[in-house]
């Protein structure tokens, strides 16, 4: 048990812990102004020691407190930033208000099934969002059962999503050649947008990969483009999600790791994109001269991730007149004055495309279109899969390659040829 005694003008507590090599071991801490403070702190420390380092008993912990524990011990260490943020929002807005007050050990499959059903009825969320909520339930309980052993069985395993009468709508839109020309022509005077869209269309890169490119990634001699990072947006404390890099904005950009190991790749690029990027690079050099000291430059600063304690690269901005002792990050898609807005660059343009040009659109549609047109043209599926950074060709077929009218016609024509030759 805990004992307390006075040492000089302060109090200290101590308690015995397990012997090591047969020798008695104690934990001692002093500096408390009163005996009561020392006793309270000592009991808290002793109880935590008796619970093998936990400040709670697994059998009595609330689901709310467990989710905080799971987030800290698993999610913040192993998951990517945007996944962590998505999980936190789901937990804060949906899971904790309805389930957080239950003990972890008393939650049953029926409890979780009723929770999911009620959200479906009351909120009318899309099937994909409801899947994300269910994923939080299943993965959090999976960690509780399979990793830390706080509960014996995973009550979320058998929970089912309600049946949606309306099939999921495919959000993808495969651009026609005319639509791509309309989009590029609309933004021909806004070069950060124009060349970013052109790059996405001719390479099939993800939006985070496009805006993570630097000029060092473009090999003009060998006609290749290297993907070995993406761009990641984080918001400093006190900021909001809607504020951009402008003036006193709180958005900060980081170089992040690629989505999967197969996403690290070098792809060939054709003369159309290559020559366009050459022109854009020359234009940027002229912009630097024109803006002089007021041109915005970017630098790569190594910092520590507060969650994982691993090193990551933060992008620092400074006017050209300021000397910065850091390696320069030669980002490609910038405003004329050098300001970098990352993936936020596309927010307003896509509203224009949708409402003014009348074209359904997402940035990812450039990737879908690139893959589909390659397959349509008879490109080898393995080469397309590698170009997109997929680990298997199945992913390429099932997720990114849509059946177009031309594919349907080709299928009919091929069967006609086969049937006639019987």
Which features characterize this protein?
422 residues; alpha+beta; DNA polymerase, domain 1; 4-stranded antiparallel β-sheet; 3-stranded antiparallel β-sheet; 10 strands; globular
List the SSEs and their pairings.
Blueprint: E1 3-7, E2 10-20, E3 23-32, H1 35-50, H2 63-78, H3 81-99, H4 109-123, H5 127-147, H6 177-186, H7 191-203, H8 207-210, E4 218-219, E5 224-227, E6 230-235, E7 251-256, E8 265-268, H9 271-291, E9 296-304, E10 311-319, H10 347-355, H11 364-376, H12 381-388, H13 393-400, H14 405-420
Antiparallel strand pairs: 1-2, 2-3, 4-5, 5-8, 6-7, 7-10, 9-10
Helix pairs in contact: 2-3, 3-5, 4-5, 6-7, 7-9, 7-11, 11-12, 12-13
Summarize the model shown.
With 422 residues, the chain is of the alpha+beta class.
Outline the structure in words:
The chain has 422 residues and is an alpha+beta fold. Among the domains are: 3-50, no CATH class; 63-147, Tyrosine recombinase, N-terminal domain (DNA polymerase, domain 1, Orthogonal Bundle), CATH 1.10.150; 207-340, no CATH class. Helix content is 45%, strand content 16%. It has 14 helices and ten strands. The chain has helices at residues 35-50, 63-78, 81-99, 109-123, 127-147, 177-186, 191-203, 207-210, 271-291, 347-355, 364-376, 381-388, 393-400, 405-420; strands spanning 3-7, 10-20, 23-32, 218-219, 224-227, 230-235, 251-256, 265-268, 296-304, 311-319. The protein has a four-stranded antiparallel sheet with strand order 6-7-10-9. Strands 1-2-3 form a three-stranded antiparallel sheet, covered by helices on one side. The chain has a three-stranded antiparallel sheet with strand order 4-5-8, with no helix packed on it. A hairpin with a 2-residue loop joins strand 1 (3-7) and strand 2 (10-20). Helix 4 packs antiparallel against helix 5, helix 7 runs antiparallel to helix 9 and helix 11 runs antiparallel to helix 12. The longest helix is centred in the first third of the chain and has 21 residues, at 127-147. The protein is globular. It starts with a strand and ends with a helix. 24% of the residues are buried.
